Amino acid sequence: MLLYANLQLAALKQELEESKQSMLESEKKLKFKEETAAAAMAARDAAEKSLKLADLRSSRLRDRVEELTHQLEDIENREDSKGQNRPRYVCWPWQWLGMDFVGFQQRPATQQEASNEMELSEPLL
Q1: Cα gap 77→74, rounded to integer Å
Q2: With bands split at pLDDT 50, 70 and 90, how would you rate the model's confidence at 5?
Q3: Taking the chain, what is the end-to-end CA distance rounded to the nearest angstrom?
Q4: Half-sphere exposure of 112 toward its Cβ, with a 13 Å CA cutoff?
Q5: What does the mean pLDDT of the chain come to?
Q6: What average pLDDT score do residues 78-93 get?
Q7: What element of type H or E holds 23?
Q8: Would you state the pLDDT for residue 78?
């Protein structure tokens, strides 16, 4: 009978040890889940803050584009009212090479300009 009690006691100790191990593993898993949830919430909060900042920046840039567009329209309207219909941008090498582009009235080339054009068009040796 003592032997039977010792066997039961040993079995109960083994079962208790296994239960302790299972409980420790469960606690570790729970702690990991809590940490993961906390990290996910922090990431969500950071993403929301980032989106708010991006929206704010986008709104400011949109306002600035509208402001610049209005300024450009005002300038174009003033130029049109003056009767100045000239090209807005000129690509400088074409003018120096004597080439014509849309909206540009080419002036007659002087002797010096003509010689410069020939120098530019000759291959380098």
Answers
A1: 5
A2: confident
A3: 117
A4: 0
A5: 80
A6: 63
A7: helix 2-82
A8: 85
CB 117 within 8 A of CB 97: yes
Give this prediction's pTM: 0.45
- Using CB atoms within 10 Å of the CB of residue 104, give its burial: 0 to 12 exposed, 13 to 18 middle, 19+ buried: middle
The token pair at 123 is 């291959």
pLDDT digits (tens, 9 = 90+) for 10-39: 999 999 999 999 999 999 999 999 999 999
Q: b vs e for 10-38, b when ≥16 Cβ sit within 10 Å of the residue's Cβ?
A: eeeeeeeeeeeeeeeeeeeeeeeeeeeee
> Closest Cα to residue 104, out of 95, 112, 113, 117?
95
- How many angstroms separate the CA atoms of 89 and 19, rounded? 83
The count of other CB atoms within 10 Å of the CB of residue 80 is: 10
Q: Which amino acid is at 3?
A: L
